[in-house]
Design goal:
single chain, 273 residues, alpha/beta, 7-stranded parallel β-sheet, 49% helix, binds acetoacetyl-coenzyme A
């Protein structure tokens, strides 16, 4: 069953028949068995689509967000998914945020590191603040968030870490030295952590979306989008957030345990690696 731990499902069925004796409840059973997924930046854009798709697949989902309270409240009202506000570029804020999510929903089984920002400008004009903000939010967050959940995943011998990088972390992009550096870092983070966790039932994968129809891409000047970007996309359109979400659900599944350290490109053919 999607979103459920098969071992626990079978155990519960056998308990009901009396074939195996009643037992002390595991922490997963205490929390109702559905796996818990935490999506950073999960209330808008690609993240909102991921949160909704995971919920539809049977997960208990928590969505974090940084600042847009109005969007988060609308998202919560529409989806019933609980929302939590913290800054993923702060290690301490992530520690406190994850603690709260786990107290509410149970231990995090699936972490989707999706939160990200852009501060696009040519490098010779880029400020230290623009550099630091993008590196800390788009790359530092992977340490800040994953470090909070990895020990629990190791102890329970199950985990899915799914990082959202970008086509521009693979190929580079004019005006995105900070963003491309961070997103390329996300790929290296994924491969190294995948090696370290492979024996322990934890997979770590990275998805590289192309240009997706979100506020982030809509912020690119129209003439740049029309002249420089769209002609590079063979399918001749922007992607939709749901097209990234379906990749996340695929990688999060209990039976995706042999897929680790992989880079999944979802970019309409813009860049093939
Ligand atoms: N390729 C080549 N040359 C470019 C260029 C490009 N994409 N963009 C600008 N230039 C040129 C300009 O024509 C200009 O040339 P001249 O001096 O000869 O006239 C020169 O570079 C400087 O231009 P600007 O002064 O406009 O440069 P700027 O510092 O203001 O930066 C920009 C412009 C912000 C980079 C703008 O071009 C832009 O927004 N580009 C799009 C960047 C982009 O694709 N971002 C992706 C956002 S979505 C996302 O990140 C999600 C994801 O994962 C895909």
């Amino acid at each position: 069953m999607p979103g459920l731990a098969p071992g626990i499902f079978i155990w519960k069925m056998l308990s009901k028949t009396g074939i195996i004796p009643a037992h002390k409840k595991t922490i997963r059973e205490e929390f109702d068995m559905a796996r818990v997924a935490l999506v950073t930046g999960g209330t808008r854009g690609i993240g909102a689509a991921i949160s909704k798709a995971l919920k539809a697949a049977g997960y208990k989902v928590a969505a974090s967000y940084a600042g847009n309270d109005a969007a988060a409240e609308t998202f919560k009202a529409e989806t019933g998914i609980p929302v939590y506000k913290w800054d993923v570029s702060s290690f301490d804020a992530c520690a406190a945020g994850v603690k709260k999510v786990e107290a509410d929903l149970g231990p995090v089984d699936v972490l989707v590191n999706n939160a990200g920002i852009t501060k696009d400008t040519a490098f010779h004009k880029m400020t230290l603040d623009q550099w630091n903000a993008v590196i800390n939010t788009n790359l530092g967050s992977l340490f800040n968030m994953t470090r909070q959940v990895i020990e629990g995943m190791r102890a329970r011998k199950f985990g899915r870490v799914i990082n959202i990088s970008s086509v521009n972390g693979q190929k580079g992009q004019f005006g995105q030295v900070n963003y491309s550096a961070a997103k390329a870092g996300d790929i290296g983070f994924t491969k190294s952590l995948a090696l370290e966790t492979a024996k322990g039932g934890i997979t770590v994968n990275v998805i590289c979306p192309g240009y997706i129809n979100t506020e982030m891409v809509q912020a690119v000047p129209k003439e740049v989008l029309d002249k420089n970007i769209l002609p590079q996309i063979p399918v001749n359109r922007l992607g939709e957030p749901e097209e990234i979400a379906r990749s996340v659900v695929f990688l999060a599944a209990d039976d995706a345990g042999f897929i680790t350290g992989s880079t999944l490109t979802v970019n309409g053919g813009q860049y093939m690696v």
